[in-house]
């Protein structure tokens, strides 16, 4: 068990114990990935060793055709002092023709919360990847601007401080851009919701 006193000290020690997760090639795939199970297997024992547990504290999801969209918050807690914790907002998508979409989306979201919380390298570099999307691709459902805007506005109401609100905006920035291109009025509503929530949070912090 770690001798560190707070959750951030414990996390720093956990980060020192694991620094890379190997990509793997699943059966039937022609590319390599970093899977949820691989990340969990590598990270969970290290977190437990240093007295940290994690679990979802908020989860919202919507369906857009055969794509499930999940907005999730993962909480990392000091097991010796449960009031000592930090939250990581995250999100994920899962495409499935049957009923596995929500589970895929949640697994994706948790995987990236773990990777980002511990600052882990995977060999992926999104900044160097370029993918051309075909508008006629039948596997990509049409973007539902109303559903996306509603999901983001619901998430905004759950944010409790300025930092989490800012993080949410960063996570949803690309989706907000998609909403703007699809519907200017909905885009204005989303920005207004962010501004209104920021005002409420600021008033609470001043009080």
Automatic annotation (TrEMBL):
A Pfam family this chain is assigned to: ERF
Domain of life: Bacteria
InterPro entries, alphabetized: ERF_bacteria_virus (IPR007499)
Protein name, as recorded: ERF family protein
Organism, as annotated: Rhizobium alvei
């Amino acid at each position: 068990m770690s001798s560190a006193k707070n959750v951030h000290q414990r996390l720093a020690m956990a980060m020192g114990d694991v620094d890379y997760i190997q990509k793997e090639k699943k059966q039937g795939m022609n590319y390599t990935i970093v899977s949820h199970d691989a990340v969990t297997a590598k990270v969970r024992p290290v977190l437990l060793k240093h007295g940290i547990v994690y679990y979802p504290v908020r989860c919202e999801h919507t369906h857009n055709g055969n794509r499930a969209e999940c907005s999730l918050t993962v909480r990392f807690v000091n097991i010796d002092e449960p009031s000592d914790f930090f939250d990581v907002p995250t999100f994920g998508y899962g495409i499935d023709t049957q009923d596995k979409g929500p589970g895929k989306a949640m697994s994706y979201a948790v995987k990236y919360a773990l990777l980002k919380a511990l600052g882990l390298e995977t060999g992926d570099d999104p900044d160097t990847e370029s993918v051309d999307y075909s508008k006629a691709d039948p596997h990509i459902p049409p973007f539902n601007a109303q559903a996306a805007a509603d999901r983001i506005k619901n998430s905004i109401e759950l944010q409790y401080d300025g930092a989490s609100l800012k993080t949410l905006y960063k996570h949803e920035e690309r989706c907000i851009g998609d909403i703007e291109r699809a519907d200017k009025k909905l885009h204005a509503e989303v920005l207004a919701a962010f501004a209104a929530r920021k005002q409420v949070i600021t008033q609470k912090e001043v009080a």
